[in-house]
Amino acid sequence: MEPTTEPKPEEITKSAEDSASSTKEEEKKTEQKVTAFEVEAGETGVDYNKLIDQFGCDRINEKHLEKIEELTGKKPHRFLRREIFFSHRSLDWCLKSFETGRGFYLYTGRGPSSSSLHIGHAIPFIFTKYMQEAFDLPLVIQLTDDEKFFHKQDLTFENVHKMGYDNIKDIIAFGFDPEKTFIFSDIDYIKYLYPNVCKMQKALTLNNVKGVFGFNDSDNAGKYAFPAVQAAPSFSNTFPHIFGKKKNVPCLIPQAIDQDPYFRMTRDIAKKLKYEKPGCIQSKFFPAITGLSGKMSASLANTTIYLSDDPKQIKNKIKKHAKSGGGETLEEHREKGANLEVDIPYQYLTFFMEDDEELARIAEEYSSGRMLTGEIKQICADVITEFITEYQERRKKVTDEDVQLFTSIRPINPKSSKMPEKPAEEAKK
Amino acid sequence: MEPTTEPKPEEITKSAEDSASSTKEEEKKTEQKVTAFEVEAGETGVDYNKLIDQFGCDRINEKHLEKIEELTGKKPHRFLRREIFFSHRSLDWCLKSFETGRGFYLYTGRGPSSSSLHIGHAIPFIFTKYMQEAFDLPLVIQLTDDEKFFHKQDLTFENVHKMGYDNIKDIIAFGFDPEKTFIFSDIDYIKYLYPNVCKMQKALTLNNVKGVFGFNDSDNAGKYAFPAVQAAPSFSNTFPHIFGKKKNVPCLIPQAIDQDPYFRMTRDIAKKLKYEKPGCIQSKFFPAITGLSGKMSASLANTTIYLSDDPKQIKNKIKKHAKSGGGETLEEHREKGANLEVDIPYQYLTFFMEDDEELARIAEEYSSGRMLTGEIKQICADVITEFITEYQERRKKVTDEDVQLFTSIRPINPKSSKMPEKPAEEAKK
User: What ranges does the record give for the region Disordered, renumbered to this chain (chains A, B) (predicted)?
Assistant: First the structure.
């Protein structure tokens, strides 16, 4: 996961054309480039409406939330309530499949580029855990050691595999249910992936891969080989120990929206291979401490909150580096209030504070200027510290035996999972 | 194996330039294009001297034969005595490694494009069996199901794997020793291949692959991914169950010369990966029944001798279709004799008649016009029938249990094999 995704060149162009009629200032604000390598945007952050149009995804709406509440009997996750997971492909089809007893499974992943996760990495895992629990779904999690090896010149094969192993422990610590979760590294599970990898690689021309990812002839052969490896877990017959003879079980992939090109490509090929198209449910980026113009990156240690940070480090990073939407001076702040849209502490609270009413209260207090920047930073540090502390408690307890358990090739059988006995029909979209 | 190999474009050009000073008629004779897809040559066949120059290999000479006889205590195989295996890379290094107790192993393979082998496919296996026996060497044999799947549009993944399985039985029937031989399909053994596949793929740019194989952007991604899969068995750490902790055991690859581009590339990368460069020992092509301008092809059923043919079919194919070097009329033949160089029955005898003196007698009788075309065709049919009948006897006895035995992941331990305890130094060439 987290691969070298780039929108098709024509889509980048389209984006530029869209803003051609705007004034120069507006242009500067909305100018953006979203790839898995980098997220560049203006100070007001990524224009997600534009991204949905570019990629051709659909917006998650009130009806989806109502349906999810109906099917799970629970209030939808705050990431859904607050439009953090905001975009999808074939979500309706997956929900319908669940409702009619056919079921679906979840697939997510991680590229082990560092031995410690940061808080941005947590978003898809938090959401996936919620989905697994709420719908009682089987879940597969892929560690793309190979991809990170191809894309990071200085990583050795052995090191990346070692980091992947450590990351499996980090992932387990999000609280996934071992009865329902299979975690695998591509390197170890490649024998099972390989039939679908080959089928994908045969169906993809170099032109296709270049078009989707923007590679050129100086890129290594592994980068061209890899997209098929990320695609393979989208098809249920990649997991015979989970799905047995059940064919074409639908798959839903929680992901940050920059992964969309991978699965747009996968969906195109699925059609050719007569496989069910995987669905996607897509999040906004977790913003960098320094502001909305980028997403959090593991390469900037001082401004990145790691899941291994202690409370003091968390507090320091937020207090010192978090971009504020508050006024320049106390007077200005009291008078005009804070701009919540660009205020990183407030934005972080939308990700991590569970209580809607308390969040609304803070929004009101802060935007009116009654609450000061120092205060909201403290609240933010407290909320994040609470999340990370709880995470670290679970992380400490994860053992090599747990890794053995989660990664062993075995049946996983959610009690109430409704797996189809017959091939599902092609997803409509 | 038998992949889409093409000499580098500049090499093809070089070949054309070499003959630019010749007369047009000479040009026509020597014009040739050698790829794994096709062998095009004039009526006098492939100019192997030119090919050695193009590819940058070395000719096998009398000293090699003397050394082989010294090391094995046996007369070198007729394929060596008759320059059918005529070219090499790092053969001296492998022989030296054997002589000094470091040892080496053999690697060959087959791409399962048809469920029945033809007699041309037998050549590398006959030679490899000789090498295994004479030197008492461990041997690995790769079935490149994936490669054939990528290169043959109409083959399904399941069919090609089924053909590969049948081909394993055909290969076992050449008489390989199960104590010394490990046979594997890429699809089944990919987990062990994958670390070296990834390392190769990272080290190869698209430009490299295009340069060696002549692919373009309309080719599928699998074709670009595959060369690394064929390369991986050249490195002994791909087989931990055979070589254990022994590092960089030298590898010698018996092959038809059209496979050279694969291993030229592999040798280049080996250097980057600090692996031992594999050696190669290379054969001429087994010519088509219809003449030296092509190699035998499985796609022309009437003029291809299959290892499943019965004596009547063999006789018919040779009598009806074998290109003759004899005179046009009986008178002309008696007067001028036969041209052995272009006579297919005689050429086939050089491959399959063991007795040097008898072969010399036939050459003398036939080239002088005393022996007639019908007579040499009969001798040829008899010799080939004997070979194929014996082969079929062995083939009948090969069981699913034999496949299980040869393909199981296990130690293989030739009694007298001298495997190095320490990494071998880099091959000089």
Answer: 1-34, 409-429
Nearest to A157 by CA among B377, B199, B295: B199
- The predicted structure's pLDDT at residue A429: 39
Show residues of chain B in contact with A147, CB under 8 Å: none
* Alpha carbon distances (Å) from B22 to A407, A422, A427, B28: 66, 69, 64, 10
pTM of the entire structure?
0.89
Q: Which of A301, A298, A352, A348 is nearest to A167 (CA)?
A: A298
- Residue B203 with chain A: CB contacts under 8 Å: 220
Give the range of the structural domain holding residue B263, as residue numbers without chain letter. 1-429
Q: Is the CB of residue A240 less than 8 Å away from at least one CB of chain B?
A: no
Report residue A31: phi and psi, to 5°: -55, 125
Mean pLDDT by 10 residues, chain B (429 residues): 37 34 43 70 85 94 98 97 98 96 95 88 97 96 97 95 96 97 98 98 96 94 97 97 92 95 94 96 94 73 89 96 94 96 96 98 98 97 98 98 97 62 41
The pLDDT score that the predictor gives to residue A237 is: 96
Interface contact B220-A210, CB threshold 8 A: no
CA-based nearest distance B297→chain A, Å: 24
The total number of structural domains that make up chain B = 1
Note whether B228 contacts A: Cβ–Cβ < 8 A. yes
Domain harbouring A389, CATH code: 3.40.50.620
- Cβ of A149 within 8 Å of Cβ of B202? The answer is yes
Residue whose tokens read 């919620």: A130
Q: Do A191 and B195 touch (CB under 8 A)?
A: no
